[in-house]
Protein backbone atom coordinates (compact mmCIF):
# COMPACT_ATOMS: atom_id res chain seq x y z
CA UNK A 1 0.00 0.00 0.00
CA UNK A 2 1.56 3.29 -1.12
CA UNK A 3 -0.93 5.82 0.26
CA UNK A 4 -4.24 6.02 2.10
CA UNK A 5 -7.03 8.16 0.63
CA UNK A 6 -9.36 9.89 3.06
CA UNK A 7 -12.27 12.30 2.79
CA UNK A 8 -12.48 13.70 6.32
CA UNK A 9 -14.30 16.85 5.21
CA UNK A 10 -13.59 20.31 3.88
CA UNK A 11 -12.45 23.22 6.02
CA UNK A 12 -14.00 25.67 3.55
CA UNK A 13 -17.45 24.09 3.95
CA UNK A 14 -19.83 25.99 6.24
CA UNK A 15 -21.40 22.70 7.38
CA UNK A 16 -18.24 20.68 8.13
CA UNK A 17 -16.81 20.74 11.66
CA UNK A 18 -13.09 21.57 11.65
CA UNK A 19 -12.32 19.61 14.80
CA UNK A 20 -14.05 16.51 13.39
CA UNK A 21 -12.09 16.88 10.14
CA UNK A 22 -8.81 17.03 12.04
CA UNK A 23 -9.66 14.05 14.25
CA UNK A 24 -10.73 12.00 11.23
CA UNK A 25 -7.54 12.94 9.36
CA UNK A 26 -5.43 12.01 12.39
CA UNK A 27 -7.03 8.57 12.47
CA UNK A 28 -6.27 8.12 8.75
CA UNK A 29 -2.70 9.32 9.29
CA UNK A 30 -2.20 6.73 12.03
CA UNK A 31 -3.53 4.04 9.70
CA UNK A 32 -1.16 5.18 6.93
CA UNK A 33 1.77 5.07 9.35
CA UNK A 34 0.81 1.59 10.59
CA UNK A 35 0.62 0.34 7.00
CA UNK A 36 4.02 1.80 6.21
CA UNK A 37 2.58 4.16 3.60
CA UNK A 38 4.25 7.18 2.11
CA UNK A 39 1.35 9.51 2.82
CA UNK A 40 -2.29 10.47 3.02
CA UNK A 41 -4.37 11.71 0.07
CA UNK A 42 -7.02 14.36 0.81
CA UNK A 43 -9.38 16.75 -1.00
CA UNK A 44 -8.50 20.31 -1.95
CA UNK A 45 -11.81 21.61 -0.56
CA UNK A 46 -15.33 21.98 -1.89
CA UNK A 47 -16.03 24.02 -4.97
CA UNK A 48 -16.92 27.62 -4.27
CA UNK A 49 -20.24 28.82 -5.65
CA UNK A 50 -18.65 32.24 -6.13
CA UNK A 51 -15.25 32.24 -7.87
CA UNK A 52 -14.61 35.70 -6.37
CA UNK A 53 -14.40 34.00 -2.96
CA UNK A 54 -11.75 31.51 -4.10
CA UNK A 55 -8.80 33.17 -2.36
CA UNK A 56 -10.62 33.48 0.96
CA UNK A 57 -11.83 29.89 0.81
CA UNK A 58 -8.39 28.65 -0.24
CA UNK A 59 -6.86 30.38 2.79
CA UNK A 60 -9.44 28.71 5.04
CA UNK A 61 -8.80 25.29 3.50
CA UNK A 62 -5.02 25.80 3.66
CA UNK A 63 -5.14 26.69 7.36
CA UNK A 64 -6.80 23.37 8.17
CA UNK A 65 -4.63 21.34 5.79
CA UNK A 66 -1.56 22.90 7.39
CA UNK A 67 -2.58 21.37 10.76
CA UNK A 68 -2.99 17.96 9.09
CA UNK A 69 0.34 18.35 7.28
CA UNK A 70 2.13 19.12 10.53
CA UNK A 71 0.62 16.01 12.14
CA UNK A 72 1.65 14.00 9.07
CA UNK A 73 5.21 15.28 9.37
CA UNK A 74 5.34 14.07 12.99
CA UNK A 75 4.60 10.57 11.62
CA UNK A 76 7.12 10.97 8.75
CA UNK A 77 4.27 11.05 6.21
CA UNK A 78 3.44 13.26 3.26
CA UNK A 79 0.10 14.91 2.61
CA UNK A 80 -1.07 14.73 -1.02
CA UNK A 81 -3.79 17.24 -1.90
CA UNK A 82 -6.00 16.33 -4.86
CA UNK A 83 -5.82 19.39 -7.11
CA UNK A 84 -6.82 20.52 -9.66
CA UNK A 85 -10.17 18.76 -9.29
CA UNK A 86 -13.38 19.17 -11.29
CA UNK A 87 -15.59 19.19 -8.18
CA UNK A 88 -13.07 20.80 -5.86
CA UNK A 89 -11.99 24.23 -4.77
CA UNK A 90 -8.95 24.21 -7.09
CA UNK A 91 -10.21 24.06 -10.66
CA UNK A 92 -6.95 24.80 -12.47
CA UNK A 93 -3.17 24.75 -12.11
CA UNK A 94 -3.00 28.32 -10.78
CA UNK A 95 -5.57 27.53 -8.07
CA UNK A 96 -3.56 24.46 -7.04
CA UNK A 97 -0.36 26.50 -6.78
CA UNK A 98 -2.15 29.19 -4.75
CA UNK A 99 -3.40 26.59 -2.25
CA UNK A 100 0.04 24.96 -1.99
CA UNK A 101 1.67 28.33 -1.32
CA UNK A 102 -0.82 28.98 1.49
CA UNK A 103 -0.28 25.59 3.12
CA UNK A 104 3.49 26.15 2.94
CA UNK A 105 4.64 22.84 4.43
CA UNK A 106 7.56 20.81 3.04
CA UNK A 107 5.69 17.50 3.24
CA UNK A 108 2.67 18.68 1.21
CA UNK A 109 2.43 17.74 -2.45
CA UNK A 110 -0.29 17.54 -5.07
CA UNK A 111 -2.16 14.42 -6.06
CA UNK A 112 -2.43 14.73 -9.83
CA UNK A 113 -5.42 12.81 -11.17
CA UNK A 114 -5.35 12.20 -14.93
CA UNK A 115 -9.15 11.87 -15.19
CA UNK A 116 -9.66 15.15 -13.32
CA UNK A 117 -7.19 16.96 -15.56
CA UNK A 118 -8.98 15.64 -18.63
CA UNK A 119 -12.41 16.62 -17.33
CA UNK A 120 -11.09 20.14 -16.73
CA UNK A 121 -9.54 20.20 -20.22
CA UNK A 122 -6.08 20.70 -18.77
CA UNK A 123 -3.29 19.27 -20.92
CA UNK A 124 -1.56 16.45 -19.06
CA UNK A 125 1.95 17.45 -20.05
CA UNK A 126 1.20 21.14 -19.46
CA UNK A 127 0.03 20.34 -15.92
CA UNK A 128 3.11 18.24 -15.20
CA UNK A 129 5.44 21.01 -16.39
CA UNK A 130 3.53 23.73 -14.52
CA UNK A 131 3.42 21.74 -11.28
CA UNK A 132 6.89 20.16 -11.46
CA UNK A 133 8.30 19.80 -7.99
CA UNK A 134 4.84 19.94 -6.38
CA UNK A 135 3.54 16.51 -7.47
CA UNK A 136 3.59 13.79 -4.83
CA UNK A 137 1.22 11.19 -6.25
CA UNK A 138 -0.26 10.46 -9.68
CA UNK A 139 -3.60 8.72 -10.15
CA UNK A 140 -4.28 7.05 -13.52
CA UNK A 141 -7.93 6.15 -14.13
CA UNK A 142 -11.08 6.44 -16.22
CA UNK A 143 -9.63 6.09 -19.68
CA UNK A 144 -8.98 3.41 -22.24
CA UNK A 145 -5.83 5.27 -23.22
CA UNK A 146 -5.08 5.58 -19.55
CA UNK A 147 -1.56 6.81 -19.76
CA UNK A 148 0.01 8.04 -22.94
CA UNK A 149 3.74 7.33 -23.07
CA UNK A 150 4.48 11.02 -23.46
CA UNK A 151 2.79 11.73 -20.11
CA UNK A 152 5.04 9.25 -18.31
CA UNK A 153 8.07 10.64 -20.12
CA UNK A 154 7.08 14.16 -19.06
CA UNK A 155 6.87 13.01 -15.44
CA UNK A 156 10.38 11.56 -15.81
CA UNK A 157 11.72 14.74 -17.43
CA UNK A 158 10.49 16.85 -14.51
CA UNK A 159 12.13 14.56 -11.96
CA UNK A 160 8.97 12.99 -10.55
CA UNK A 161 9.93 10.01 -8.36
CA UNK A 162 6.60 9.27 -6.66
CA UNK A 163 3.95 6.65 -7.19
CA UNK A 164 1.59 6.26 -10.14
CA UNK A 165 -1.54 4.49 -8.94
CA UNK A 166 -3.63 2.65 -11.51
CA UNK A 167 -7.29 2.87 -10.54
CA UNK A 168 -9.43 1.32 -13.26
CA UNK A 169 -13.07 2.36 -13.28
CA UNK A 170 -14.94 -0.92 -13.13
CA UNK A 171 -18.34 0.65 -12.64
CA UNK A 172 -20.95 -0.15 -10.04
CA UNK A 173 -21.50 -3.82 -10.88
CA UNK A 174 -18.58 -5.68 -9.33
CA UNK A 175 -20.02 -9.05 -10.40
CA UNK A 176 -20.03 -7.95 -14.05
CA UNK A 177 -16.53 -6.50 -13.73
CA UNK A 178 -15.17 -9.83 -12.41
CA UNK A 179 -16.31 -11.62 -15.61
Description:
Helices cover 42% and strands 17% of the residues. The chain has 179 residues and is an alpha/beta fold. A 6-stranded parallel β-sheet has the order 1-2-3-4-5-6.
Short description:
The chain contains seven helices and six strands. It has 179 residues and is an alpha/beta fold. Strands 1-2-3-4-5-6 form a six-stranded parallel β-sheet.
Protein traits:
179 residues; alpha/beta; 6-stranded parallel beta sheet; 42% helix; 17% strand; globular
Give the termini separation. Answer: 25 Å
User: Unreliable segments (pLDDT under 50, ≥5 consecutive)?
Assistant: none
Order of helices and strands: EHEHEHEHHEHEH
- Report strand %: 15-25%
User: Quick one: biggest sheet?
Assistant: 6 strands, parallel
Query: What characteristic shape results from the CA principal axes?
Result: globular
Question: What structural category arises from helix and sheet content?
Answer: alpha/beta
Number of strands: 6
Rg over C-alpha atoms, rounded to the nearest angstrom: 16 Å
Helix proportion:
40-55%
Looking across the biggest beta sheet, what order are the strands in?
A: 1-2-3-4-5-6
Mean pLDDT: 90
The total of helices stands at 7
List the helices and strands and how they pair.
Layout: E1 3-5, H1 18-34, E2 39-43, H2 54-74, E3 78-82, H3 93-103, E4 108-113, H4 114-119, H5 124-130, E5 135-141, H6 149-157, E6 163-167, H7 174-178
Parallel strand pairs: 1-2, 2-3, 3-4, 4-5, 5-6
Helix pairs in contact: 1-2, 2-3, 5-6
